[in-house]
Amino acid sequence: xxxxxxxxxxxxxxxxxxxxxxxxxxxxxxxxxxxxxxxxxxxxxxxxxxxxxxxxxxxxxxxxxxxxxxxxxxxxxxxxxxxxxxxxxxxxxxxxxxxxxxxxxxxxxxxxxxxxxxxxxxxxxxxxxxxxxxxxxxxxxxxxxxxxxxxxxxxxxxxxxxxxxxxxxxxxx
Length: 173
Prior knowledge:
By secondary structure, this protein is mostly beta strands. It has strands at 7-9, 18-22, 27-30, 33-35, 47-51, 56-59, 62-64, 70-72, 79-82, 85-87, 91-92, 97-98, 102-104, 111-114, 117-119, 126-130, 137-138, 140-143, 146-148, 161-165, 169-170. The protein is globular and about 40 Å long.
């Protein structure tokens, strides 16, 4: 319908569910709103977008009030996240705030995160991080993103951008 957009609501589902769970390759998603209408913030929340497929594009999405807004599996390749507005995601428990705007790992190929706006998460805005043995940080490109007030919703604050972890950060060859 002209002037309207699709809204995908994960509702009160568990953290293992997402408003959009992508497993099909060679797909592009554009101009969608992803969110969770769950009222609780003291436990984990359903995610906005989880990406388990290579050769995918996510363009001009609005993602809010979910757990992690966008998570990409480390084994997916050729993923682009472009022009998204991401805000108010995450939850807080006794230890800290959780839930990032973009949580990205990459073990092969390339991933691009560009021209997005991320603000007011409970966790980090842009979070390229991995624990030892759980994926790599290989050939990630962050370009033209704006991140502010991330971590501000939690008592123990996170930052706007974290890139690193317990595996080396590497550039593709």
